[in-house]
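How a chain folds remains the central question behind the approach discussed here. No coordinates are needed to read the tokens, only the vocabulary itself. For completeness, the protein is quoted in full, as a sequence line and a line of structure tokens:
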Amino acid sequence: MSEVYYKDSAGFQLLNYDYNGFLLPSFPNIQENMDRLPDMPIRDDDVLLQGYFKAGCHWMWEIAGMLVNGSAEYNPDSKLTAMIECASRDQLDQLPSPRVLNNHLFLHHLPREIFTKKPKMIFMTRNPRDIAASAYYHTFQLKKLYEYDGDWNGFFELFFEGKVNYGSWFEYMLQWEKDINDHPELPILIVKYEDLKKDPVGNVAKVAEFLGLPKNDQLFKDIADKCTFGKMKAAKYSQLEFLRTPTKTLFRKGVVGDWKNWFTVSQNERFQVECDKFDKQSTLFSTKY
């Protein structure tokens, strides 16, 4: 695997790691982590959390963790400790059960034991325009990881061309649709970010039912309340020293439709052309929100 720098139109570079043609963040030891991943043991009570980056996986990681532990208490650790492309095998092995293992990978990257043990899997989706806007903020703030100094316009071109971590959103989603259709034996629940925002209690209950957990209306309400954007941001993700702007956090707005404050008319028109193509190919996902 090698470092790959893609330049935007203004000449600003964004760092990716190329793992067999798949773009990843430059996490420490990522080559070793990815190489060892297929042979990683899966536990019977593991939950795997999937989705393109900035699709709401952080949010669902907290929710699912509270559900499997039966308590509306935040995980004291960072999501990175359970992120299988970032954490080492030893770190993952030391996590107590039940584990909620998050990632932004393809199905073929995951441990082979998922096909025999069939752990529950949750797949997050979100409006790709909001993902793009959130991804810019994320990439710009994490300067040490991405080394990107460009503006939104430059980042939009890189995102549009799939030259960012985890590649093209359109290709990523179509590949996952194929994988889901090819493996109906795998238990996969698709959760929309927008649905979770609209009805948090109902969707927490939906996830709990999928995970085979007992109905507990009060717990579901407590978890939905604890996992509101404002409370999570204040409790767990306040100022971080490693961000470009130390007074900022990795949690930005958490709203639906903020892309309208970023996309120009021209950018939206170009993006819509790709969305139309995608919607003609996909029966499982949609760009219409």
About this structure: The chain has 13 helices and seven strands.
